[in-house]
Amino acid sequence: MLAYIHTLQSEYFYILPTIATLTYVLYQRFFSPLSKIPGPFLASLTSWWLVFAIRRHDINRRMQRLHQKYGPIVRITPDEISVADLSAIRKIYSSHGSWAKSNYYSVFQGTRKHDIFAGRDVKVHAQQRKMVARAYAMETLKELEVYVDKMLNVFKRKMDENAGQSVDMARWMQLFAFDTIGEITWSTNFGFMEASKDDGTFSTIRAVGSSGSWLGVVPWLYKTHQFLQPVIGNWLGINGRHGGLRDFAIRETAARKNRPVEKPDIVGRMLDTSKKNPEEFTYTDVISMATSNVAAGSDTTAISLRSIIYHLLQNPETKRKLIEEIAEFRRKGQLSNSPRYTEAQKMPYLQAAIYEGMRVHPAVGVNLPRVVPPGGAHLAGHYIPSGTVAGVNAWVVHQNEEVYGADAKEFRPDRWLEEGSGDMHRFFFSFGAGSRACIGRNISLLEMSKLIPTIFLNYEVELANPTEEWKEDCSFFVQQSNFYVRMTPRSDTAVDS
Ligand code: HEM
What we know:
This protein is of the alpha+beta class. The chain folds into two domains: 1-31; 99-377 and 424-493, CATH 1.10.630.10. Helix content is 55%, strand content 9%. A four-stranded mixed sheet has the order 1-2-7-4. The chain has a three-stranded antiparallel sheet with strand order 3-11-8. Strands 5-6 form a two-stranded antiparallel sheet. Strand 5 and strand 6 form a beta hairpin. Bound molecules: protoporphyrin IX containing FE. Residues 116-117, 129, 292-293, 296-297, 300-301, 304, 363-364, 368, 430-432, 436, 438-440, 443-444 line the site of protoporphyrin IX containing FE. One of its GO terms (molecular function) is oxidoreductase activity, acting on paired donors, with incorporation or reduction of molecular oxygen.
């Protein structure tokens, strides 16, 4: 009898889990509300498929391949879809913002009460964003230009020192972007360009992005880790967000309180807001906002600058057109030696090259996930129940041939100058879209619109290794490396094309 019970027990040991697994697989494949959405088989069964895909550091390219294979809507976890359908994109990222950010962002927020980038409460976010909006508005930019000029001078001095030599442009764009965002935020910089190197901040931010990019898919793992951390110690790069950068923000914000500045910088404006609304926008919120500025506004700008310069150099005809435009504006006296933003905004080819550089290589390589609101939604011909996560990837949208033409894969700034470019702007996704679109967009356009003509006006620029391609690494941001140039100062900055 005992032996019979033992046999029965050991059979159940196998049978029950097998039945449970089969039931789960059958449910996900045939009965789940998302069962009709195509996608990789494993992705429909487990979120770990997406975790491992992201950990390969090429999710931007993989998403492009997935949509090519499966169409405008792809199931990428048992309860998450990736969307490339144009009308669905507008629905998900509407300006009234009823589609909240998903739990993916919780790992970036950690325990901070307010985080403008990662906060998921729609109302709290709207209130916080209103508080800081003025500091990023278009009319504020003219006050910030002086800070960009200061950093452009340092950049030029450093490039003159390296004249004719092979320069690591990937690295220099990062040094420039960090120092400039420091100036814009606190009217002081990190001193990275002066030192020609960073202090470890770059790799910390990269580790935060790299770890957060996959951990956000399984936020319960992050919570478990945080609970066990006192015993097991820290195993996650994401926890680096509390490190050096925030310490810098705390130190510089305190110093900034007593330091008069030439022009109002971002922290100065936020300290004023905090003084007027101490309950809604606390001193800690000022520090969080300043930290977010650096984390969200430096690598993104560096990546975009690299893309613009690299593609101009890879496509000599586009470089020639830009230099011709610069020369023409110089001849007409419409472009200063240190280009003004108002002048650069009037240069159509320059602006087209900036948008095209950002289109072919968006800085963010992961989907921007949102939660389907109560009542569900119809997306790309499918009913998607409330609570499902839906996201769009800029790398996918920007390849849409309906919007960007049959040559969408190519770098061709002229497309932005042709008639009917309205949809191209409407679906331009490098800055995200809707109520959570990038608040620093104008600031980055200010920086890029000044740096690009400064470079091509003052230097003859060429790729140091023209036969080599750069390398891409998607760790939330899609960083480039192996991008070296030779810059030779021009004797005549009237520019002969
Ligand atoms: C070319 C440069 C930039 C790119 C490509 C970029 C890209 C983005 C994207 C895609 C988002 C939306 C993220 C999402 O929906 O999850 C975003 C949000 C944000 N960006 Fe940028 N960004 C850039 C520059 C900047 C700069 C210079 C700053 C600060 C000065 C900044 C600050 C922010 C902040 C605070 C948010 C969160 C906004 C919110 O949720 O209300 N960004 N950015």
